[in-house]
Automatic annotation (TrEMBL):
Pfam families, sorted: HPAT
InterPro entries the record matches: HPAT-like, HPAT/SRGT1-like
Recorded GO CC terms: membrane
One Gene Ontology molecular-function label: glycosyltransferase activity
Domain of life: Eukaryota
Domain spans labelled Hydroxyproline O-arabinosyltransferase-like: 63-373
Keywords: Glycosyltransferase, Membrane, Transferase, Transmembrane, Transmembrane helix
Topology with respect to the bilayer: Single-pass membrane protein
Compartments where located: Membrane
Coiled coil (UniProt feature): none
Principal subcellular localization: membrane
Protein name in UniProt: Hydroxyproline O-arabinosyltransferase-like domain-containing protein
Keyword Transmembrane belongs to the record: yes
Length: 378
């Protein structure tokens, strides 16, 4: 979650406003997402943005799972669930998972150090992060790549709200990382602003892939090249008023001010990684089967990661109640200051299999993770 420094210690009223703001922001994206899903399927063999989605290079090499996180309660409980399912699927047939590291960019150890393998990265120097923790993410990767002993040849960049739902093979090749194409990353529609960071002499704007930094499987040596550029472009984008205006469609859709700014910088970091990759001549294999995003993706099928970033709200008839809180709901932003309770109620009949599977996986993890109710509280 993207929050200003020390947000975890804010007063309860402010926390409530943030919860409501995030919920409102999510629902204002609904119509856009529904319209997109009418026109774009989420299967691996469809074209995307005029490019054919390529198949796996099937390198078979192990990849290291790298999870960026903060020490906020909201981040911690998601990390614990994510790590639980990593351990469950790591050794299953078809998996190329290697070791796991939580890259903690809060600059200090926390209470999960003995539970999850963790590398503590320093935040950016005072003032450079502009008060937004998310800008520490690429800088944390630079430190980890320089200082850590990483055995695997490849790296999977992941986030706390990812759950491994099927064993994930190495989808990358030596020259091409694999990434998930986000429908709202549209370099060609923002060519004027992209050209400020990716000049014409570097090539056509279509060289900038419609991806973010996560989920991406990438060869370690390529990531070592890209990461410093990712840091620099992230900071330059944050400082450029025209970039804010060019990506302002996000703020307009969210229809709120301060909260939308918090959400916006996640988009900015994704664009920064896409541009940095293009600057180094790196093209990604686009895999729509890399992950699914309930409630919009209805079936798990052979996809590999559940990304539970959107709220799931339904009435008791099993109908999606987008635009308002449902009689049954699961939304990670309902649990900003403490973990969700064990044994969440299952959705009513008629709710898509993807949502049911998500809740069952959360329940299994919380039932088996020690001290679930006592740890990870703000």
């Amino acid at each position: 979650m993207i929050v200003r420094k020390n947000m975890g210690r804010a007063k309860s009223l402010l926390m409530l406003l943030i919860v409501l703001g995030f919920s409102f922001a999510t629902y204002n994206l609904v119509s856009l997402i529904i319209e997109h899903n009418k026109n774009e399927g989420l299967v691996a063999d469809e074209s995307f943005g005029g490019r054919k989605v390529m198949g796996s290079a099937k390198s078979g090499s192990k990849y290291h799972v790298a999870l960026t996180a903060t020490d906020a309660a909201y981040s911690q409980w998601q990390c614990r669930i994510m790590y639980y399912w990593y351990k469950k699927v790591r050794d299953m047939p078809g998996s190329d998972m290697g070791k796991f590291t939580r890259i903690l960019h809060s600059g200090r150890a926390d209470q999960l150090m003995n539970e999850i393998p963790t590398f503590v990265a320093d935040p950016l120097p005072e003032g450079l992060d502009r008060g937004y923790i998310v800008l520490n993410r690429p800088w944390a990767f630079v430190q980890w790549l320089e200082k850590a002993d990483i055995e695997e040849e490849y790296i999977l960049m992941a986030e706390p709200d990812h759950i491994f739902v099927n064993p994930l093979p190495n989808l990358a090749s030596r020259t091409q990382p694999a990434g998930f194409p986000f429908f709202y990353i549209k370099p060609a529609e923002n060519e004027k602003i992209i050209r400020k960071f990716y000049p014409e002499e570097k090539g056509p704007v279509t060289d900038v892939d419609p991806i973010g930094n996560s989920p991406v499987i990438i060869q370690k040596s390529l990531m070592e090249e890209i990461a410093p550029s990712w840091v620099n472009i992230s900071l330059r984008m944050k400082d450029d008023p025209e970039t804010d205006k060019a990506f302002g469609w996000v703020l307009e859709i969210l229809a709120i001010s301060d909260i939308s700014n918090l959400l916006y910088f996640a988009l900015e970091i994704r664009y920064a990684y896409a541009v940095a990759s293009a600057l180094h001549g790196v093209k990604h294999i686009l895999r729509k089967d890399f992950m699914l995003q309930p409630p919009w993706d209805l079936h798990v099928g052979k996809k590999f990661i559940i990304h539970y970033t959107y709220g799931c709200d339904y009435n008791l008839k099993g109908e999606l109640t987008y635009g308002k809180i449902g009689e049954w709901r699961f939304d990670k932003r309902s649990h900003l200051t403490s973990p969700p309770p064990k044994n969440l109620s299952l959705p009513p009949p008629g709710v898509p299999e993807s949502v049911v599977r998500l809740v069952k996986m959360v329940n299994e993890a919380t039932a088996n993770i020690p001290e679930w109710d006592s740890l990870n509280r703000t």
